[in-house]
UniProtKB/TrEMBL annotation:
Membrane-spanning intervals of the chain: 12-32, 39-59, 65-88, 95-114, 126-151, 172-201, 213-233
InterPro entries reported for this sequence: FliR (IPR006303), T3SS_IM_R (IPR002010)
Membrane-topology descriptor: Multi-pass membrane protein
Organism: Hephaestia caeni
Classification via Pfam families: Bac_export_1
Protein name per UniProt: Flagellar biosynthetic protein FliR
Family of the protein in this entry: Belongs to the FliR/MopE/SpaR family.
Protein purpose: Role in flagellar biosynthesis.
Localization per record: Cell membrane; Bacterial flagellum basal body
Taxonomy, superkingdom: Bacteria
Length: 257
């Protein structure tokens, strides 16, 4: 019942209730939450996965739609979905940190472009690394792992009792430091070479003050940075796989404990 003497189809109301958690996760999660994904596509995916959930889990939605207990249950469902998507988004922030570090060291920090995930302007190198991480995420079926996690979350955190404990919020906050640590480690091979180059250029500028530091240092930083990226990119790709695994593992620990 709607609460005003009006009736609603029980199956439709159960589907809408299940779609709250799934839709909230798709809003916050990478790939699914990209601005390039149309809203009807997200709604259709949420509905399709909601039908799968209803077919495998005995979900019982609140009896009345316009009731305080129903609003609290919906808020709990949305909170769980947003937490699952947000913790994956934290892992996807590591390439943005690495791109800023490398780009500023190479002297191309001013080059920016529109990020296809967020629709905001960011460093071009950060967008390149973020795109590579997204492709690796899809190549290892991370999106399917996310969908499977959402379906199984109805066993670990059933609707109606889905409020997250304080220690789970603490885990999300602690995992936020992983974005900076992973970003620094991702930028370490190229950043170390550029740091050595800057030290050499600084020694040259002190020993030969007549040299034009900007005319020499900027082309050298750009050339060494491009070569270092080409050499270190296989190792960076391997570490991006680790970032994806850590993000999915953190999301699974959040849901299943």
């Amino acid at each position: 019942m709607l609460g005003f003497g009006l009736a609603i189809e029980p199956q439709l109301w159960a589907l809408i209730f299940v779609m709250v958690r799934i839709g909230a996760a798709f809003i916050a999660a990478p790939v699914f939450g990209a601005v390039s994904i149309p809203l009807p596509v997200r709604v259709a995916l949420s509905g399709a996965i909601g039908v799968l959930v209803l077919g495998t889990h005995p979900v019982t939605p609140p009896t009345e739609v316009f009731a305080l207990a129903t609003f609290l249950s919906i808020a709990g469902e949305a909170l769980v979905g947003l937490a699952i998507g947000f913790i994956l988004q934290i892992a996807f922030a590591a390439p943005l940190v690495a791109g800023e570090i490398i780009g500023n060291s190479m002297g191309i920090g001013f080059a920016s472009m529109i990020d296809p995930q967020t629709g905001r302007s960011s460093a071009a190198l950060s967008n390149f690394l973020s795109t590579m991480l997204t492709l690796l995420f899809l190549s290892v079926n991370g999106h399917l792992v996310l969908v499977d996690m959402l379906v199984k979350s109805y066993d670990a955190m059933p609707p109606g009792a889905a409020w997250m404990a304080p220690e789970r919020f603490r885990d999300i906050a602690f995992f936020g430091s992983y974005a900076f640590a992973a970003g620094f480690l991702l930028a370490l091979p190229v950043g170390f070479l550029l740091l050595c180059l800057n030290l050499i250029v600084g020694m040259l500028s002190r020993s030969a003050p007549a040299l034009n530091l900007f005319a020499i240092g900027l082309p050298m930083s750009l050339g060494v940075g491009v070569i270092a990226l080409a050499i270190a990119f296989p190792a960076m790709g391997d570490y991006m796989i680790i970032i994806v695994d850590e993000g999915l593992r953190a999301a699974q620990n959040l849901v299943f404990g």
